[in-house]
Write a structure and sequence with these properties.
The protein has one domain (3-289): TIM Barrel, CATH 3.20.20.220. 48% of the residues lie in helices and 14% in strands. It contains twelve helices and eight strands.
């Protein structure tokens, strides 16, 4: 099922789609392990599951299509395959489109991806698909429902929020029909971002991405890789349970669930949980959102 239709059906029913993300911890996620994860997700009936482009191991992007296909065919859950553009050529994109079609994939999340080693931002301007917006039209023309990433606190390479929203509008104009946000720990950033998006003419759904933090190491990694701000309540939790990993994990999941409840109450178009492939994390989110 196409994600744009999922959002349309939910809007008509006065509901909000809840989705999960499957990703490769430390760069590796075999098809067998992905099947186990999907089996834990299935009883929770998420509206869709997205699969990161590097699933299957560093550089083994072929597994993304296999895992997305497995989720849809074996568990009946709509899936979204991530695709990064920074290393694609017209020929490799055509091959990827053929691969996705053969796997029955209907939905693709178009992303830029990290610059390859040795490539500068100036070099990137001269490649076939330097930005996600450049990838979107080809995927739409190929018949996919295409989504894109949104950054409530701005992108690492663009700390000016209005400019970041302008880039989001360019993705919509290129044909993107939904957006999934980068994780954030303070909902006020999302509400401010949504106001700017509305003012910029963003009309497609923006689903809010939340990652429960379960360790100090994890949250610090997210801060540096995603440029997410740490609000005072999170810092206090980290300080309070610094020497109690089990309590820190419980408090982190509880904090994320409060974020999700607040976002649902304030009318977010959808809610996307970065589950870390943990069924208990997904279950906790669903407990507060569908009780």
């Amino acid at each position: 099922m196409r994600v744009d239709q999922i959002f349309a059906d939910a809007r008509a029913a006065g509901a909000q789609p809840v989705s999960f993300e499957m990703f490769p911890p430390k760069g590796e996620l075999t098809l067998e392990r992905a099947r186990e994860v999907a089996g834990g997700f299935a009883p929770l009936a998420p509206d869709f599951v997205s699969v990161t482009y590097s699933a299957g191991g560093s550089g083994n992007s072929a597994a993304t299509a296999q895992i997305a296909q497995m989720i849809s065919t074996e568990f009946g859950i709509p899936s979204v395959a991530h695709l990064t553009c920074i290393s694609l050529t017209p020929d490799t994109l055509a091959a990827k489109i053929d691969e996705f079609r053969a796997a029955g994939i209907e939905n693709v999340l178009a992303l830029r991806g990290d610059l390859p080693a040795g490539m500068s931002e100036a070099d990137a301007e001269n490649i076939a698909f330097p930005y996600a917006k450049d990838l979107v039209p080809a995927l739409v023309d190929a018949g996919f429902c295409v989504g894109g990433a949104a950054y409530p606190e701005g992108h690492l390479t663009c700390d000016d929020l209005p400019t970041s929203v302008k880039h989001l509008r360019q993705k919509q104009d290129a044909g993107a029909s939904f957006f999934v946000t980068q994780l954030f720990f303070d909902n006020e950033y999302f509400y401010r971002f949504r106001e700017l998006a509305d003012a910029a003419g963003i009309t497609v759904p923006i689903t809010a991405g939340i990652m429960p933090f379960t360790s100090k190491q994890q949250i610090m990694r997210m801060v540096f890789t995603c440029a997410a701000s740490l609000p005072a309540p999170v810092i206090k939790i980290l300080a309070r349970y610094e020497d109690d990993p089990a309590s820190l994990r419980e408090a982190g999941i509880e904090y994320a669930c409060r974020q999700l409840e607040d976002l649902a109450a304030h009318g977010a178009d959808g809610l996307h949980v970065y589950t870390m492939n943990r069924a208990d994390v997904a279950q906790a989110a669903m407990h507060v959102l569908r009780r």
